[in-house]
Structures are given as C-alpha cells and as structure tokens.
C-alpha cells in the first residue's frame, strides 16, 4: 500500500472526538487552532481486522468481566517471535492499563523511597515523572549528541550507577525522542554494565514495531542469546503500533520467576482490575492481521520524515534533524536558527504548531522540538511551510 492509498483508506478527522491531541489544544497550549504535531498518536484508523473484532464484541452487547484468552497469547507470541525473534512464554506475561502505569508499578515494586533510578536523557518525560512522583532519586545520564546523532556515554552511564548506587535503569528502546534504534552492541554494553552492578533493567519497547528500513529492533531480553533476561523486565503494547492507546492495554514480560513473584505481590496491593475486553480483542486482531497496515504506516512515516529532511536541509540547513531510525517522532535542533529562549514563541505563536518542547525531555533540551510524523502528509507539509516562512521573516 503506497502513501496515498494508506491515507485515502485510513486518514480521519479527529477534531470533535475528545482527542487529547486535537481537542485539548486550548487546555494544553492555550490555543485551539494549532496544527497538532505533539502527543504520540495518529490521524489513522486502526486496521480493518481490529475494527471487525471490536464490532463483533460490541454486537454481542455484553461487556462483563473477562480473562485473557489462549488465542490472544497465541497472536502476541507469534508476533514477537516472527517480527523480533523473541520467544515469549505465556506464563511470563502480565497486563496493565498502560506502559506508563506499569513504569510506576516497577519503580514502586523494585525500589524503596530515595533509591536511585537512572534514565538516559533526553527521554519521554513520564520516565522522569515515574521516578520523581514516587519519591525516588532521579539520576540522568545525558546521551551524547554528535550533530544530531545520539550515542550512549558508556563511561558516564557506569559512573552514574556507581556514584549514586542506582537500583533500577529504565531504558527506552527504540528511543523517544531521539529516534535511535539501539544496536546489539550498544545494548550489550549497557546491559552488561547494569548486570555488573546488579541494576534491574526495565526496557520500554512500546516503539518496537516502528522501525525504519535498514534498522532492526532487538528486544533487550534476547541480547547476547538472553544473557541479561534474568534481571530484566520488558514492557510493550500495541498502542503506538496500531494507534490503540485509548484502549488501555499493555503487556509486561518478566522471565525470572523470583522477579515475577515480587512483581505479583506488589501489584496485588494496587491493582485488582481484570483485562480490558475491547483492548484485548483489538490487540489480538492487530497482531494477527495488522502486518500490511503496519507496512503502509511505516511508509507514511518515512515519506513525512523525508519531506521534512529535504525541505529543511535545503532551505534551513541550520536546523539539525536527528536521523529517524525508529519511532514516528522526529527530533529537531533549532538552536542555530532561533534563540533557544524564544522556541515557544517561534513554533507555537508564529508557526502555529503544537509540539513537544525539548525541555520536557531533558534540562538540556531547550531549543529542541519533537514533531509527530504519523499523520497525513498535508499536516507535515503545513508545519514545514510555516517554519520556513517564519524563518524568512
Ligand atoms: C516510550 C514510551 N513509553 C510509553 C508511552 C505511553 O504508553 P501508555 O500510553 O501505554 O502509557 C509512550 C507514548 O508516547 C512512549 O513514547
């Protein structure tokens, strides 16, 4: 399916549907008329198979308590194996109403108040919140920015662990917002360091399926033939991949039995909710039948990213665009063209775009913005046009 076909089939107006992205612009940005390029969801309907599965459930008309059917496990396990080479066992799986919710659970379950938790910044801001809101000590290690390409400072990473007696590391793989898909070598290095210092790893792999050609997402749990799986928790979901975030269904994978029972004991104290009947129906259908849709979506993301690159590189070469290896979020460094203190005034008030601002992701992020590419090309074209027109003024 090419870009035009995908958009023709799936693009949809979201205004007027209680969409956080579009209908909360006034509350979040103080202006209802911006082009919404911020929060990570899309203007695309889910695959037909997902809608069919939901329609079937709805036609039945009963939404009582449910449990996870064998057929769901089959679909998820097949997807992980065929797409990512990860052979997940059913008994390793747990469920939550969101990846972010699960991050809070992990922090509470596996650390004590004032324990140190490490993140690689700039990173998705709920990572910061999950540590701060739970009264833990937030330790950040800044990724090294080499002209837009981000690398891990392995010495700094290890030093942060040792100096702060870090207990837990929350990893973002692929990485939001810098767009890196970590290589096996990189993963091996950080996981070995964590192993050496007995640091538990949580690997947030929610963007696992949104990977550009030429890159390969490697689940942390299978790095070096699973060497690190015993001190590792993976959390993922169909919500980014298939635009299902509002169905509040995400998955936790814990291989180690002891870790799993510690997790279960903690979760019993905060969660007594069964699974979401619609969320699981949607997820199962997506993992079983969503392949072609996902290929179409990835083509749209690539197309939009190439558009931004081509036009900004040509007409505003001072803007540094980080290479998009994975996720559908691009990270732009505007500091060569705009006074960093005026980023908001420029992007929001003049260019009329709602973005995620760099300082949400890192104290050093001022002057950067994150733009969402999982949308119709016309929105991306408009954003680029507005940026270029206002730079000229
Ligand atoms: C890295 C990462 N984790 C988690 C989430 C959100 O997950 P959920 O909606 O399941 O809490 C996002 C959303 O953008 C994300 O980028």
UniProtKB/TrEMBL annotation:
- What cofactor requirement does the entry state? pyridoxal 5'-phosphate
InterPro entries referenced in this protein's UniProt entry, alphabetically: Aminotransferase_I/II_large, C-S_lyase_PatB-like, Class-II_PLP-Dep_Aminotrans, PyrdxlP-dep_Trfase, PyrdxlP-dep_Trfase_major, PyrdxlP-dep_Trfase_small
Top-level EC class: lyase
Q: Which branch of life, at top level?
A: Bacteria
Q: What is its EC number?
A: 4.4.1.13
Give yes or no: UniProt keyword Transmembrane helix: no
* Residues covered by the Aminotransferase class I/classII large domain: 70-385
Which SUPFAM superfamilies does the UniProt record give? PLP-dependent transferases
Q: Which GO terms describe its molecular function?
A: cysteine-S-conjugate beta-lyase activity
Q: Which UniProt keywords apply?
A: Lyase, Pyridoxal phosphate
- Classification via Pfam families: Aminotran_1_2 (PF00155)
Q: Which CDD domains match?
A: AAT_like
Q: Which family does it belong to?
A: Belongs to the class-II pyridoxal-phosphate-dependent aminotransferase family. MalY/PatB cystathionine beta-lyase subfamily.
Q: NCBIfam families attached here?
A: C_S_lyase_PatB (TIGR04350)
Please report the name of this protein according to its UniProt entry. cysteine-S-conjugate beta-lyase
The organism of origin for this protein:
Sporosarcina koreensis
